[in-house]
Amino acid sequence: MYFDLTDEQQAIKATAHEFLAARYKSERIRELAESEHGFEQSDWEEMAGLGWQGLALPEEWSGQGLGIVELAVLFEEMGYALAPSPLFSNTIAGLALAHGGSDDQCERFLRPLAEGKLRGTPALWDAGSPATIGEFTMEARADGDGVVLDGEKVLVMDAAAADFLLVATADGHRHVVESGAPGVTVAPATSIDLTRRLYSVRFEGVRVAPENSLPGSDDEYFPVFHRVCVALAAESTGIAQRTMEMAVEYAKDRQQFGRPIGSYQAVSHRCAQMLLETENARSAVYGAAWAADAEPESLPTAASMAKAYASDAGWRVPDASLQVHGGIGFTWEHDLHFFLKRGKANAAMFGDAKWHRERVADAVLSAAGEPVSA
Amino acid sequence: MDLTLSPSEQQFREEVRGWIEANHPGPEPEAGLEEVMAFRREWQQKMHAAGWAGISWPKEYGGRGATMIEQAIFVGEASRLEAPSPANVLGLAMGGPVVIAHGTDAQKQRYLEPILTAEEIWCQGFSEPESGSDLASLKTRAVKDGDEWVVTGQKVWTTFAQYAKWCMLVARTDPDAPKHKGLTYFLMDMELEGVEAKPLVQITGEGEFNEVFIEEARIPDENVIGEVGGGWSVAITTLMNERAGLAFGAIAQVANGLKRLGALAAETRTNGGTAAEDPVIRQRLAQLYIEAETMRLNAYRGLTKTMQSGIPGPEGSLGKWQWADINQRMAELALDIEGAYAPLARGDEHAIAGGAWQYSFLRSRANSIEGGTTDILKNIIAERVLGLPKMR
Ligand SMILES: Cc1cc2nc3c(=O)[nH]c(=O)nc-3n(C[C@H](O)[C@H](O)[C@H](O)COP(=O)(O)OP(=O)(O)OC[C@H]3O[C@@H](n4cnc5c(N)ncnc54)[C@H](O)[C@@H]3O)c2cc1C
């Protein structure tokens, strides 16, 4: 029993922390938030130098072959820095290819993705659908030996900067579609979250050659989904940690009625609550990350626990921090709103807290599940 | 990172589990604190005979010298298997460790063995009518007279004082010193003339805790633990041991409670289905499971940290806060599931689950008060973990 990061994991954390803190200062985040693609290619290349695109991807396809614990370490730091980057969407595409792609597809798409030379992103939810996990309405219409796609995908992350999309269809399959392919139109969406770009993507008679449809199906993508939930929950944990620190620092500094506001219990107890939620989120995340690597049979419930808890903490902690800051926290000029917005967007993505709690209820109410053991 | 037990830890768990299963005396008697105490005394004697009483104590003092992880495993298994509590919880968890840490050789010789055997029960005389959270303001006075201390004052909420031979008593020996500096830690014989314990009835109807009236009781000087005037740091050792010892037992208790709660939901009919099908109940139950899991994982993270640094940090306060909150909400959810039957208590033939949840609902109200109120824990976290300025 040893529930802490190993020295190597600590090293990954320290490197990420330093790198991201140097790159993503407030002014830079603001610049990127207003730029066309929301990130910068030179940052991407530096990340590739650190091996981040392939961190948790198999070594055989140029990845680093590390685990989900390491991935969680990285994404906790990405959240802490609020780094605007397609790294998250790219990681999802990479995990999906690794789990559901053929060797030939991994050679053509996964290897360059892991090396940072090609970017991929998943295109999952259909316009007008309830955007429920695993339920897609776009048909993969047979056409000769390939398929043809028609329809519109929404909530697609970083699509304009992606080289290819992994498009989900009703039969549970994924298809690699190059973003410049004929019939594909990418349009930016307007999101509260300014540090992660969302798009809608129209498909009009887009032909997919048979070698670009992945053989994998739902059975391969649920494990991907669970790992993605852990990474996203880690990111929200980083957001909670950062905004808690901002609140504590401000509460020590800001004086009202002749003393620091942190000496008032309404303020200090709010901060204690932030710490509780942040630590709980962190425990749930690393418990689930460890399960992904070492005990995959308990991953589905552990991942849902982590995503449910971190979904709430990831926006409530920034929200509480905003309250501690008073009026200044409500200004555009203060950075808090960027964190609050990302936290709230994260809460809604890949199953909200309610959806994941329902999964947990399912697991614990079916006699088989025995998730809490001493 | 490894959240599984090592082979030797696993072997230890098997050993603990095997012993408890073979020796488990069955459920505690439901009525009568006297009967319960007798039952627990017998259980503790069995534990002691097999070397399981005081497992955290060093071997030279009759303990087992178990590592922290082994202690966690032991209390976890005992709670999971719903083994009875030993009779002398306060002696084992606080009194013994305090004597070991601060006592003289003669005191160790005198006090430790009867704690382990449950021959002498201990109680904790800290709180007073006017000093609860602000413990250091306590007023019970001890005045030196020859080689004795003459003690006068009142203690309150003293759990098991009516069964206790020894009381861990903190009294003021120097009224002129600053409030934390004028205190001394005594072991007071409850049979002394001038000492009287009167049970107070709790909201559950039971009388676990007491008022203790002390009227010119004469405590021999050799019963001082630590330095005269050094009582505060001894008291802190006591409280640290209290918090550290309880976590893993509490976690296993919550896990048992959640399983029962799930079963209750599955068996209870409501709105044409079962409570287990009700979306609101499902959400609340899932949230409790999730928080219980975060509490368990936090405790293991804390344990890893403590094993590295050697001392439990103030983060332990998070666990106590969270446990109180979860334990209360479990019982609240149970009563909501029971619906119109929620008022029916132990002893009523229509009470659901024998009225167990009604008892838990009431008993758990104290969880956010006993052993430091939740508000005080938040103060500790704000000041000592987050470094916020002291409130005044
Ligand atoms: C079941 C049970 C068993 C117990 N057993 C023992 C025992 O064996 N031995 C023993 O010595 N004691 C025991 N206690 C006493 C317990 O430790 C005290 O009740 C507790 O410390 C609170 O003190 P109080 O009751 O005087 O409340 P107070 O301290 O008067 O508190 C009243 C309210 O004010 C709040 N408050 C007080 N100070 C602050 C502050 N600075 N900031 C914010 N809020 C504040 C509290 O949180 C609480 O809500 C027991 C209590 C219970 C309920």
Question: What would you note in describing this structure?
Answer:
The complex is a heterodimer of chains A (374) and B (392). By secondary structure, chain A is of the alpha+beta class. Chain A has helices at residues 7-23, 26-34, 41-50, 68-81, 87-100, 103-114, 218-253, 265-294, 299-325, 336-348, 353-365; strands at 120-123, 125-126, 141-143, 146-157, 164-168, 174-178, 184-188, 198-208, 255-256, 259-260. Chain A has 3 domains: 7-114, Acyl-CoA dehydrogenase/oxidase, N-terminal domain (Butyryl-Coa Dehydrogenase, subunit A, domain 1, Orthogonal Bundle), CATH 1.10.540.10; 120-216, Butyryl-CoA Dehydrogenase, subunit A, domain 2 (Beta Barrel); 219-367, Butyryl-CoA Dehydrogenase, subunit A, domain 3 (Up-down Bundle). In chain A, the strands form 3 sheets. In chain A, strands 2, 3, 4, 7 and 8 form a 5-stranded antiparallel beta sheet that branches. Chain A has a 3-stranded mixed beta sheet with strand order 1-5-6, covered by helices on one side. A two-stranded antiparallel ribbon of chain A has the order 9-10. The longest helix of chain A has 36 residues, at 218-253. Chain B is an alpha+beta fold and 392 residues long. Chain B has 10 helices and 10 strands. Chain B has helices at 7-23, 33-49, 68-80, 89-102, 105-116, 231-267, 279-309, 316-338, 356-363, 374-385, and strands spanning 122-125, 141-145, 148-156, 166-172, 183-189, 195-199, 210-220, 224-225, 269-270, 273-274. A 4-stranded mixed beta sheet of chain B has the order 1-4-5-8. In chain B, strands 2-3-7-6 form a 4-stranded antiparallel beta sheet, with no helix packed on it. In chain B, strand 2 and strand 3 form a beta hairpin. Chain B starts with 6 loop residues before the first helix and ends in a 7-residue tail after the last helix. The model of chain B has no long low-confidence stretch (mean pLDDT 94). The chains are: A alpha+beta (374), B alpha+beta (392). The complex binds flavin-adenine dinucleotide. The site of flavin-adenine dinucleotide has 19 residues of chain B, from strand 1 and helix 10.
